[in-house]
Amino acid sequence: MFQLDFMQNAFIAGIIISILCPFIGLFLVLRRYSTIGDTLSHSSFAGVAIGLVLGINPILSAFLFTTICAIVIEFLRGYYKKYAELVMSIVLTLSLGIAILLISSGKASTKVNSYLFGSILTVSSEDIKLIFIVGIISLLTLIFLYNKLLYITFDEEGAKTSNINVKLINYIFTILVGATISMSIRVMGLLVISSIMIVPVATAMQLKKGFKTTLISSIIFGMIDILLGLSLSYYIDSAPGGTIAITSVITLTIVIIINKFLNNK
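Above: the chain sequence. Below: its structure as tokens.
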């Protein structure tokens, strides 16, 4: 399996995604932003369709379009402070409309399945370079903003009074969410990207530890889910996105059962 170039590419991409997605996901869960993952994954769908129609790298077009949508979401949240989900619905509607319009034209429909469900066969060296660059930049940005993000997550009003530029950091964080989603579509597929951002976090939270331990545990569970899911998808010839999603839920179930058994002893 590992002697095959496409599997090597898939595993390299998978490792980068398994570190970044739970890192982002923990902040999303704690800030009650879980729905933004689904919204931006549909935005990346429109970005992919634009790339396929224009003949440019779909991951790059997805990144650019998702970034624009992330900025729009954060901008509109200022106008709908008490109705954040309304903003998500607006962006979701626009993105799906664009995606359906372009795909129904027939110019993008032939290649769209690999982006919807993920495909380890189509992860190219060019994709790996783009995923690596975006992944490293995103990870370094998260590390740099870690303390401020943590403060904003637990006490946004307190962060404002401490002269932290909350609005700017929220914009940057939302863009990072979009970047993470757009670079994950080759492996995970558009339909289940948000699962790898949220489910490993839900699994780690079962351990009931502090923030840093939960963060590290989320990344470990994310790696287990993605690497095991990729291996299984190779051997049973299935779409990696769905296989990884099922693997992550099974991991969560096992941890819940073990946790319950240990607590009842």
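The chain has a mean pLDDT of 80.
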